[in-house]
Design brief:
Strand order of the largest sheet: 2-1-3-4-5
CATH architecture of the largest domain: 3-Layer(aba) Sandwich
Structural class: alpha/beta
Oligomer: single chain
Number of strands: 9
Radius of gyration: 21 Å
CATH topology of the largest domain: Rossmann fold
Number of helices: 15
Largest sheet: 5 strands, parallel
Number of domains: 2
Shape: globular
CATH class of the largest domain: Alpha Beta
Strand content: 5-15%
Order of helices and strands: HHHHEHEEHEHEHHHEHEHEHEHH
């Protein structure tokens, strides 16, 4: 992109008044509110009355879209501690191995997500231990009828902007059951790290010193392909989904080492369209050495096809901080891409139309 054109894009992202005018539901404010969400969510999860002890035969988090990503976050952060598998279920049915010994989190922001409600009924039929997270809706009604633990999520947010509320209560409950440790310490550090990220990426920080604005200008009218590995695989998925919903744009994601066994071969045809793609690596200081090597070798193999591969790493000591700081950059990026297109990031009309036609 010629430098004068890029500079005009960056100047557009420095017009804070215009950004606030276009952002009808204050998505920028919701992203900036994530540190506060973490504290409120941890307290809410900790207040749930749970009976500790007894073997937990697997953990499932049933949810869709923004209500599902929290399960991925917690599984990715605490998988090394958990004594049994933890899976996110995006669909109508629970895995067959989920039984009356299993713990099932039912996560639906609206409470009316049909796939998640199907899993709720299955969990009840199987006698599972069930914990619900929702603003209400059908999930709230069933929780009241069946006397199920219900963590009430604030209703003033977009589901995709409620990351803290849809993830941290799960970790708090697992901590209460003795399945993981030190969640409070992780929350405190993560909130501190995110506070610094928000100052760096937020609209008030000029583009000259703002990596999120600079990346948005670089990706304008391009198709991002985001690659993560281990803990950052979840961040890559989150970047993709946020760009889809906020910027109304295509984006794709994958993870190392899996992509080295298939997708790497696809970076050749159609040759005429390769220049439209841009690759982003989401890295982490504690990746397996072979995954680091794979990233470097893959970059060398792709450099003649995709040009520069940009790399971004989360910050912080604990896995939660490193993951959510990486997520935070992607959240801001998606909003800035929407601003550059001149669109309000909040509405998701195709999703709403789809729901109406399925009802």
């Amino acid at each position: 992109m010629p430098e004068p054109d890029r500079q005009r894009l960056l100047e557009k992202l420095d017009d804070v008044v215009a950004i606030r005018r276009l952002d009808s539901q204050d998505q920028f404010g919701m992203v900036a509110g994530l540190p506060g969400q973490l504290f409120g969510a941890y307290a809410a999860g900790g207040d749930v009355a749970l009976e500790a002890g007894g073997e937990v035969g697997g953990v499932a988090v049933a949810g869709m879209g923004g209500s599902a990503i929290g399960g991925d976050v917690i599984a990715s952060v605490y998988d090394a501690e958990l004594p049994s598998p933890m899976v996110t279920v995006r669909g109508y049915n629970l895995p067959h191995w989920i039984s009356n010994r299993s713990l099932v989190f039912i996560v639906s922001y609206s409470g009316n997500t049909e796939e998640t409600n199907s899993c709720l009924h299955e969990a009840l039929d199987r006698g599972c231990r069930v914990i619900c997270l929702s603003t209400g809706g059908k999930v709230g009604q069933i929780a009241a009828e069946k006397n199920l633990p219900l963590i009430t999520v604030p209703s003033s947010l977009q589901p995709r902007a409620a990351m803290g509320w849809l993830s941290v209560p799960i970790a708090a409950c697992l901590e209460n059951l003795g399945l993981v440790e030190a969640v409070a310490d992780d929350v405190n550090e993560t909130a501190s790290v995110l506070g610094k990220c928000i100052e760096l990426y937020g609209p008030e920080n000029p583009a000259a010193a703002n990596p999120a604005k600079q990346l948005a200008a670089d990706l304008f009218e391009r198709i991002p392909v985001i690659y993560g590995s281990e803990v950052t695989a979840v961040a890559a998925l989150r970047w993709k989904c946020q760009i889809n919903e906020n910027a109304k744009a295509l984006a794709f994601c994958n993870q190392f080492p899996e992509l080295n066994h298939n997708e790497i071969v696809g970076w050749e045809y159609p040759a005429a369209d390769m220049e439209r793609f841009r690759v982003i690596y989401l890295t982490d200081e504690k990746l397996h050495p072979q995954n680091v090597k794979r990233m470097n070798v893959t970059a060398s193999l792709l450099e003649n096809y995709v040009g520069e591969i940009k790399r971004y790493a989360g910050t912080g000591n604990c896995r939660l901080a490193r993951l959510l700081s990486s997520v935070n950059l992607g959240d801001y990026l998606s909003l800035y891409l929407a601003i550059l297109k001149g669109i309000d990031p909040s509405p998701v009309e195709r999703i709403e139309n789809l729901k109406k036609q399925l009802a």
